[in-house]
Amino acid sequence: MKTIIKALLAPCMPVAAAFLLAACGPSTLDFRNAEVVNGKIFRAGADKPYSGDLTNAPARAAIVGRKDYAAYHQTLSNVYSSLGILADIYTAVAMCDVHVEHGVLDGKAVCRATADQLLSDEMSFDKGALDGRIRTYFPRNGSKLAAEAHFDNGVLDGDMTMYGPESGRKILQMSFKQGKVHGKQEIVDDETGKLVFRATYSKGLVDGELVRYSRGTDRLEYRVRMVDGIKDGIEENYDVFSGKLRDRRGWKMGKPHGDVVVAALDSDRNPTDELQVVAKYDNGMQVPLAPTAKSAVTVVPPGTASNVQGCVDTQIVAFRVQHGEDEVITADQLGEWEAECLSGKRPG
Predict the structure, then answer these.
(1) Burial 257-290 (b: 16+ CB within 10 A, else e)
(2) Tell me: the pLDDT tens digits for 100-131?
């Protein structure tokens, strides 16, 4: 009897199996028919949180407002702004298809620019938190890759890279360690590939030398030494057009230390090679200038034995040749060189 029943049911098995698979497969819900209650996604009118595929979810509602995504997007905005790039990033107006489990994002998400369905973003979630690789694209530029990073349970962790919209070269290279910048960060100009910014971080704080260059040139704009996010060593500002020193001062664990030297300005308010010692500090306390000073400002004319600018620069260059770019020049060392140069002593 059982044999006869099996034989009669056999032709129906494919149909039954297909029906069962369809019934058990993931459901699909358009975001227009969904509602968010206490941070969880429901099918409109349902009592239990939704599980299945969610389509046409506005990125502004599903992605952009998230705290974990904000850190990633802020980095993109800061770098583009520093390079003067008006990037065609459409995440805020994109529409996304995401997977949901028990009311929270869980699985892969793909976002596309609404007008022409060009790829905008790809990312993945684990129990509501960004997790794994995230990629952002330039939709209007053939969906070329704009940036990529890695999340671990809702925080940036690992390498992050950005690419220029025109050249496609890497314009940002940095790393995160459990949500904090760690290691070397470099930003280069999209057009020329020249360095714009470089700093070394430890646990989110600058730890070492931070430098900025005038965009697209080799002209140094700013340099400072820091330890655990606190200034400790030389701080220098340079004119972005001429490359001449504007001012130099020393720091000792966050406190002014040593001479404050500024460049005299010409009639067009541009810095000259003439330096002025305008103040002096000792571990944060301002102290009187040398008794030999004729006024509160000591003018050091260029081209003489007291040309502090060239003298100190020679000392700095010699120091870096001997010890390397990453060796810290302390405020005490800088003050010693300045004192020697003011007295007429020359390196070598």
Answers:
(1) bbbbbbbeeeeeeebeebbbbebbbeeeeeeebe
(2) 999 999 999 999 987 677 888 999 999 999 99
The least confident of 164-178, 238-252, 282-296 is: 282-296
**Sign (positive/negative) of CA torsion 61, 65, 67, 70?**
positive
CA 105 to chain centre: 26
Give which of 91, 53, 59, 61 is closest to 73, Cα–Cα: 91
**Token representation of residue 218:** 């080799």
246: CB partners within 8 A, 6+ apart? 237, 238, 239, 262, 263, 271
Q: Which two tokens stand for residue 6?
A: 């099996």
Provide the token pair at 110.
Answer: 């793909």
Residue 202 to residue 180: CA distance in whole angstroms: 8
Whole-Å CA distances, 33 to 28, 42, 47: 10, 9, 14
Task: Give 175-187 pLDDT, tens digit per residue.
Answer: 999 999 999 999 9
CA dihedral 135, 136, 142, 144 (to 10 degrees): -60
pLDDT digits (tens, 9 = 90+) for 96-105: 999 999 999 9
Domain positions in the chain are 26-164, 207-348
- pLDDT tens, residue by residue, 2-13: 444 444 444 444
Residue 12 burial class via C-beta count within 10 angstroms: exposed 0-12, middle 13-18, buried 19 and up = exposed
On whether the CB atoms of residues 176 and 182 are closer than 8 A, the answer is yes
CB 197 within 8 A of CB 183: no
pLDDT band at 50 (very low <50, low <70, confident <90, very high): very high
SS3 337: helix
The CA distance from 70 to 346, in Å, is 53
C-alpha to C-alpha distance for 120 and 113, rounded to whole angstroms: 6
Q: Are strands 271-282 and 132-138 parallel, antiparallel or unpaired?
A: unpaired
